[in-house]
Design a protein that fits this description.
Layout lengths: L1 H9 L6 H18 L29 H16 L3 H25 L11
């Protein structure tokens, strides 16, 4: 709920907390499928759904705060039909995404990267 409260404080909107949780779950699904699951050390199962707002998001500090915040801002702008605002937020999100992905790839071994076998 911290991320949702931050969004609502800094960018008031009419979307329900449940909708924002669905957006966050959707992003975490992408993170899990496209990045975490492609590496050997998958450290936790992916939750079925986010309902309480007490769930722990997959990306922690220092990357998570910007990643999730810019994503929520972009989703609000998209739903409001604010194309220019959406594009700006997605640019910020993509930069945060790439920073986290680069760190994750440096810090975790991808599947099939164990060396040579004879």
């Amino acid at each position: 709920m911290d991320m949702i409260e931050r969004l609502d404080l800094l960018e008031p909107n009419d979307y329900s907390p449940e909708q924002k949780l669905r957006w966050l779950r959707s992003l975490d699904g992408k993170i899990y499928r496209e990045v975490i699951k492609t590496h050997e050390d998958v450290w936790q199962p992916f939750p079925e759904e986010y309902t309480s707002g007490e769930e722990t998001l997959l990306v922690g500090e220092p990357y998570g705060e910007d990643l999730y915040y810019y994503y929520l801002q972009a989703m609000v702008a998209a739903e409001n039909g604010e194309t220019q605002r959406y594009n700006k937020r997605m640019t910020l999100f993509n930069s945060a995404w790439q920073g986290w992905v680069n760190w994750y790839n440096r810090s975790h071994r991808p599947h099939g990267q164990g060396g040579f076998r004879f």
